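stage 2 :: seqdesign
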């Protein structure tokens, strides 16, 4: 079905297709400009013409209601101004138009009501004439083309008027804020003007081809094209920048950085112990021992934790590299009466059973221990008296072994090996895994001076040993595993998600290609594993909890009121989805901020923040909270407390992504409201997360670059009591780094 047929079917005029074509109306856009009287004049019945008008009016209303959630990747202008007070409507002919009203419709009506109060336009006119102008496109495009009289002035402004003789313009376009002037697809006489200082795109149609060429030529002379950054290699290793999405972790060392191979191999020394203690309870142990082989290569490996995973045991001989364990038996007897009796079956024993009436004179029984497998009961058979006494294992019974036992009744955690080797003595490395024997966490205590300009911070590892073994002089590595959510929590989160509206019509949106779709959500960050070395060898005794200080330092800090937004982490490729990061939540806190300038990372953990009293005797506990993992050079913000009665919102007011020009123009409005009865000074921080190369093309308030972070900017506001400030700014991203799948589509479209 053609676009014309679709259009006519929607407005209820599909039976008039031939009539429309015969009268030269074969373009939906031309049909959309016809009035009811025009339709009747070419042969459409009055009732059908009226029905078409009502149908388009109904659809326009529905699309207007859903415009806030309708996908539009090409461009979006600012939200419509508040509805003015009701006025008497002007009588005018009815125009059939299918397209979203409001934020994506032509804004001439609003501009006409406003009075132009910009600079006086007195310089030389470079070109002038009538041009058809419209707003941004809806589902079928904004159909309200209106003829305007345009003039381009030598000072770099293009003004448009309602008529040729008007003195005051409807609007003025700053040519210095323009990006490019290009042909309009599907319109031989059309061209579009993309703005750099806003996400606006002006769609214009000249009267004839000569005029179009003249207009385009003069406009391009006024535009200063932006510098195109040098394309970057997405696989190039770039300097570390906080908030960058880290490369995926991989088990293969083929992907490790080259500088990690500079590690010096450690010499093998007897008695070395290395522990890898994981936050999920897993344990890896590696020990260096000297072992001596017995007859037929028999070896007992004792002094092990109370339980190990015998399937993970590994033996390596440095004395004889070809030696290996040919057989292995793991022993670890449970200390229970049942386990002991199972080993005494068929042996002569003596049993003492206490009596309630004569507790100090127990009943003594002697005989051979037998076992009835049918009902799992034990009994003592006295062959001399031919009597049998049943035993209850839950009673306080004592046993006397009448026969000499070569081996102990209970065998502790141990390994019985048969080693295939020639040498009788081996310096060897033994490793194994275990579970739920150790626990660890990180905690911090930070103390601010009274003026909040300096902070002393100490960090502690707390390690609990419940392994049944003491590890002496051990090298310890602590491993932070990602925490897995419980199924109940996942279900509750899924049920809390709002249902997404169904989007209909013919709205254009980019396909989801590797997370780059026009309405795709921000990718969920990968769960990572972090490793932290205990700075010195330590002894971890069984049954004890040890605290190890891994950081103790003083740092300069800055105390301020701070607003931040939870924008996405920086990614390998540019984020071109309109909604990516657009609805980021804000946090308003009184905070202390500092840069972590030590050469090692610090783990996530709980921090207790204190502040010294003014007499420096004693301190107050200011806040207790969890901090995340941080790397060297990271900027750390510690919340003192939420800044009450101060709120902030961040709203995307425009977005224009150009695949051909590889640029994005985005506009935002940040509102900060001070509900306090005293003035505040507050810093608003914004992260420019979409791409590496950015430029702030307009800002209602003066901004400053972040002192250390190359992709953040800040505004410093002073807000009176019970007042507010609104920051409006535009950012221009250029030289977008896109995946090959998208650049290939661009080349196909160009060809």
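stage 2 :: out
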């Amino acid at each position: 079905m053609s676009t014309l047929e679709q259009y006519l079917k929607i407005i209820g005029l599909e039976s008039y297709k031939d009539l429309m074509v015969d009268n030269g109306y074969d373009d939906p856009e031309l049909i959309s400009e016809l009035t009811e009287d025009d339709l009747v004049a070419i042969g459409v019945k009055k009732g059908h013409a009226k029905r078409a008008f009502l149908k388009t009016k109904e659809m326009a209303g529905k699309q207007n209601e859903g415009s806030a959630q309708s996908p539009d990747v090409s461009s979006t202008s600012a939200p419509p101004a508040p509805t003015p007070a009701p006025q008497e409507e002007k009588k005018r002919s009815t125009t059939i138009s299918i397209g979203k009203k409001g934020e994506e419709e032509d804004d001439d009506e609003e501009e006409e009501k406003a009075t132009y109060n910009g600079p006086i336009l007195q310089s030389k006119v470079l070109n002038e004439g009538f041009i058809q102008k419209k707003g941004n496109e809806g589902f079928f495009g904004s159909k309200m083309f209106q003829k305007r009289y345009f003039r381009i002035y030598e000072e770099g402004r293009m003004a448009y008027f309602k008529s040729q003789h008007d003195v005051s313009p409807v609007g003025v376009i700053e040519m210095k804020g323009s990006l490019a002037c290009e042909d309009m697809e599907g319109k031989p006489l059309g061209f579009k003007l993309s703005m750099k200082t806003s996400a606006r795109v002006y769609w214009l149609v000249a009267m004839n081809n000569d005029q179009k060429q003249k207009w385009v030529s003069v406009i391009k002379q006024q535009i200063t094209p932006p510098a195109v950054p040098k394309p970057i290699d997405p696989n190039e290793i770039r300097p570390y920048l906080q908030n960058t999405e880290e490369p995926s972790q991989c088990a293969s060392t083929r992907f490790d950085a080259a500088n990690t191979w500079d590690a010096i191999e450690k010499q093998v020394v007897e008695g070395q112990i290395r522990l890898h203690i994981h936050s999920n309870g897993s344990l890896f142990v590696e020990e260096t021992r000297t072992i001596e082989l017995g007859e037929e290569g028999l070896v007992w490996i004792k002094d092990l934790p109370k339980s190990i995973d015998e399937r993970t045991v590994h033996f390596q001989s440095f004395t004889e590299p070809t030696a290996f364990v040919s057989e292995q038996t793991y022993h670890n007897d449970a200390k229970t009466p049942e386990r002991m009796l199972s080993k005494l079956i068929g042996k002569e024993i003596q049993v003492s059973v206490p009596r309630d009436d004569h507790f100090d004179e127990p009943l003594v029984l002697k005989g051979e221990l037998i076992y009835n497998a049918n009902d799992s009961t034990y009994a003592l058979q006295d062959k001399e008296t031919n009597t049998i006494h049943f035993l209850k294992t839950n009673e306080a019974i004592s046993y006397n072994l009448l026969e000499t036992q070569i081996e102990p009744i209970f065998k502790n955690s141990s390994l019985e090996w048969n080693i295939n080797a020639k040498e009788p003595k081996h310096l060897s490395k033994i490793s194994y895994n275990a579970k739920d024997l150790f626990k660890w966490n990180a905690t911090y205590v930070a103390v601010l001076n009274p003026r909040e300009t300096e902070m002393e911070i100490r960090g502690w590892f707390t390690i609990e040993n419940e392994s049944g073994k003491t590890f002496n002089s051990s090298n310890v590595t602590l491993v932070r595993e990602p925490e897995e959510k419980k199924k109940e929590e996942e279900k509750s989160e899924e049920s809390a998600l709002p249902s997404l509206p169904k989007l209909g019509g013919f709205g254009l949106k980019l396909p989801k290609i590797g997370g780059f779709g026009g309405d795709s959500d921000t990718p969920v960050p990968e769960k990572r594993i972090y490793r932290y070395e205990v700075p010195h060898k330590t002894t971890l005794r069984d049954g004890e909890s040890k605290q190890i200080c891994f950081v103790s330092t003083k740092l300069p800090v800055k105390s301020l009121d701070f607003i931040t937004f939870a924008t996405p982490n920086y990614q390998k490729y540019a984020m071109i989805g309109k909604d990516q990061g657009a609805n980021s939540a804000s946090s308003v806190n009184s905070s202390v901020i500092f840069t972590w300038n030590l050469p090692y990372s610090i783990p996530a953990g709980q921090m207790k923040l204190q502040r010294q009293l003014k007499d420096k005797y004693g301190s107050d506990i200011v806040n207790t909270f969890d901090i995340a993992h941080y790397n060297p050079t990271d900027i750390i913000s510690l919340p003192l407390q939420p800044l009450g009665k101060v709120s902030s919102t961040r709203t995307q007011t425009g977005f224009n992504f150009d695949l051909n020009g590889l640029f994005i123009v985005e506009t935002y409005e940040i509102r900060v409201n001070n509900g306090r009865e005293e003035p505040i000074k507050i810093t608003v921080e914004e992260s420019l997360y979409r791409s590496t190369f950015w430029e702030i093309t307009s800002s209602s308030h003066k901004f400053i670059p972040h002192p250390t972070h190359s992709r953040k900017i800040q505004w410093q506001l002073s807000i009176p009591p019970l007042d507010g400030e609104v920051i409006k700014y535009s950012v221009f991203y250029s030289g977008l780094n896109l995946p090959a799948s998208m650049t290939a589509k661009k080349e196909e479209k160009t060809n």
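stage 3 :: structure notes
- Confidence is low (pLDDT under 50) at residues 64-106, 108-114, 136-142, 492-523.
- Residues 423 and 739 are 59 Å apart (CA to CA).
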